Amino acid sequence: MIETARLVMRSWRDEDVAPFQAICSDPDVMATLGPPLDRDETAALIGRVRAIEAEHGHTFWALERKEDARLIGWCGVIRGSAGPVAGKAELGWRLARDAWGAGYASEAARGAADWALAHLPDDDLWAITWEGNVRSRAVMERLGMAYRAGLDFDHPKLAAGDPLRRHVTYSMARTKAAA
């Protein structure tokens, strides 16, 4: 479990499926991520991130707000699976629409980055997003991550012609994160 001033990142529970499905079915949330997910798709996604945690000891954890114990999304670090971040420590987050604009994504991502730097051997932390995702790109920049223009790529899990296919890459060196 990772705690920040206002948030907790923790392992997933069975009862998280319904609230996370509400997030993953919101067209505003999914506008930069892909099509909205139904309950079965959300349960399968949670199953995949649980398996990642079981294998690696870290994942995109359930993100809970301390003040009301509400699940507001996910945040954490996985081993990247696509493009220039494949096999690298990749930070990621997804938040409920009504949790946007309160600094939760930056706070959670900083907590996950600090955890990764304390527990993983990687020299760099990485993040990717669809090129038009200005909110996530702003979080990456607030963390001190640098845009790596030469590492833009077409996400292999998205079909040719998918408007979300083009992705950008950001990274932060361990020495930059410690500064």
TrEMBL record:
Gene3D superfamilies, A to Z: 3.40.630.30
Alphabetical list of Pfam families matching this protein: Acetyltransf_3
SUPFAM superfamilies: Acyl-CoA N-acyltransferases (Nat)
PROSITE patterns (UniProt xref): GNAT
Transmembrane segments: none
Highest taxon of the lineage: Bacteria
Annotated ranges, domain N-acetyltransferase: 7-177
PANTHER family registered for this protein in UniProt: GNAT FAMILY, PUTATIVE (AFU_ORTHOLOGUE AFUA_3G00765)-RELATED-RELATED, N-ACETYLTRANSFERASE DOMAIN-CONTAINING PROTEIN
Name used for this protein in its record: GNAT family N-acetyltransferase
Organism, scientific name: Sphingopyxis soli
